[in-house]
Design a protein that fits this description.
Elements: H1 2-12, H2 16-23, H3 30-47, H4 52-76, H5 78-91
Length: 100
């Protein structure tokens, strides 16, 4: 991308429009500032919300992260995978047997 921009600058660098475009900093534009303010407002409303839907999204997000982490562990350490399977099997309650 820098090669393309430098090539354009070599060809059209003398043009005032191109010179003006090179001086523009996107973060100083009013549109960017308004978007950043809007994103901050949305983030504040999300962080301070007590709505059940927000909590459900957070729980699902955490479960997704946990699933990704455990999948990475299973791939990285196969012996740990066997330990996980044993642990899951031990969590299952044994069937009830009724004696006469």
């Amino acid at each position: 991308m820098n090669k393309v921009l430098s090539d354009l600058y070599d060809r059209f660098g003398h043009h005032p429009l191109f010179a003006k475009l090179r001086r523009v900093d996107i973060k100083d534009t009013p549109i960017f500032k308004k978007g950043a303010e809007l994103a901050d407002d949305i983030r504040d409303k999300y962080e301070t919300s007590d709505h059940p839907a927000v909590h459900k999204v957070e729980v699902r997000w955490l479960l997704l992260l946990l699933a990704e982490a455990s999948a990475a562990v299973v791939v990285a350490a196969p012996p740990f995978s066997a330990l996980q399977m044993f642990w899951r099997a031990s969590l299952v309650s044994p069937p009830c047997v009724l004696l006469p």
